[in-house]
Amino acid sequence: LNLKASGTEQATGLGANATLQMVRSATVRFAGETLTEQTISVLPMDFVESEVGHETDGSLGFNIFLKFDILEDYRANRVTLVPPAEFIAPKGYTSLPVIVSGNAALVQLTVGGADGKPVKGLFLIDSGGIGDIVLRKTFVDANPSLQPKKLVGIPSVINVGGRVDIASGSLGLLALGNYSMHDLQATFLRSRSEEHTSELQSR
């Protein structure tokens, strides 16, 4: 690509801190738009490739999507980017308040363990995360009712900052706006390095 790094920055991910190479003043052509003066981070994509099962050249950043209203249709394998002035909400849609913090979008969720006791938390919106929902160890420790009766260790993943130890278990409830989902498979972070992440922030 003939891109030259012009500096480094520290990033925090599931695998703790990592140093990223930064390419500045790049031009990106995307969805019929030409975006100039963009900043590109260079980092290993192993953690994405291990999830999707094939080679991945990169990921689109938060700042790109800020310019559009986004419609994701997983069944149709389609993402539609709409200029905000032209956006018309689909019939029957549910609007949820989103908290934008730094370069992350967060949403308030209610989750419950096998006993159904509801616990509220602030969750990172991740359209390609590991499992239906990811729970931080400190959050589960502070809310023992979320601890499943059985945890199954699964292969660790490589994320920003390194390898992350994870396990899979059941979660009784997830409430998002007007929607309630039951008996989900949750991913539980088990490594110490996950304490540095914002995958979930309890309140």
Report on the architecture of this protein.
The chain has 3 helices and 13 strands, in the order E-E-E-H-H-E-E-E-E-E-E-H-E-E-E-E. It has 203 residues and is mainly β. The strands form 3 sheets. Strands 6, 7, 8, 9, 10, 11, 12 and 13 form an 8-stranded mixed beta sheet that branches. Strands 1-2-3 form a 3-stranded antiparallel beta sheet, with no helix packed on it. It is globular. The relative contact order is 0.18.
Brief summary:
The protein is mainly β. The chain contains three helices and 13 strands.
SSE layout:
Layout: E1 7-13, E2 16-30, E3 33-42, H1 46-52, H2 62-65, E4 69-73, E5 78-82, E6 99-101, E7 104-112, E8 118-124, E9 133-135, H3 137-142, E10 152-159, E11 162-176, E12 179-189, E13 200-202
Q: How many strands in all? A: 13
Mean pLDDT across the residues is 77
Number of helices: 3
Ends apart, CA distance between termini: 43 Å
Q: Which structural class fits the helix and strand makeup?
A: mainly beta
How large, in whole angstroms, is the Cα Rg? 18 Å
Estimated share of beta-strand residues:
over 45%
- Please give the share of residues in helix: under 10%
Main beta sheet strand tally, sense and closure: 8 strands, mixed
N-to-C series of helices and strands? EEEHHEEEEEEHEEEE
